[in-house]
Amino acid sequence: MQSKIAGLVAVSAIVFMGFRDSAAPEIPYDLGAAKAHFIPMEVAAGYTRHFRETRDALHAQHPGMKARLALEHSESFNRDGIAALLNAKDSSGNPAAGVRIYQGLDAAGQTRLVLVPYDARGKDILTTLSSPGTVAVTSDRTSVGAEVVEDGLRCPPSCPSEDESPLTAK
């Protein structure tokens, strides 16, 4: 009898999990604080177009530059990578106040975006992101074991088409 009940519970759990809403929940945020960073799409499209035109002109004027400084259109990071940054704790155990993006350059000359959480005082939170809930390792230059987010999907080659985004339109 006990095994029948356990089997029924297991089957019920599997069926229930199949009907579960699989959409990711919305991440709560303060709309007022977020609005300070919003700009119209037309302005953003102008920025990205001007960047590509300027980069291409520089590459034409200095042919060796492209091999030494490969500037991508964009770099994409998944939701979980961003959430790990925002969930990082500072040395007092408080969650990150935001994300800072550094420009980097790898050995092959490819630009890299390096994302780091920062605290309410504007200091980088240097912690172990792969161990959620870990309080900041340290806030100085000797942060052995600290992790950041990088290795996003580069555009090109992973770009939306011009029809999909005004940020890639010519």
The helix content is 25-40%
Number of distinct beta strands: 4
Shape: globular
Strand % is 5-15%
Which sequence of SSEs, written as H and E, runs from N to C? HHHHEHEEE
Show unreliable segments. Answer: 8-20
> Which structural class should the secondary elements be placed in?
alpha+beta
Into how many domains do the coordinates divide?
1
Oligomer: single chain
Largest sheet features = 2 strands, antiparallel
State the distance separating the first and last CA atoms.
Answer: 70 Å
Please explain how this structure is put together.
The chain contains five helices and four strands; from the N terminus they run ααααβαβββ. By secondary structure, the protein is α+β, with helices and mostly antiparallel strands. It has one domain (27-155). β2 and β3 (111-118) form a beta hairpin. The model is unreliable at 8-20 (pLDDT under 50).
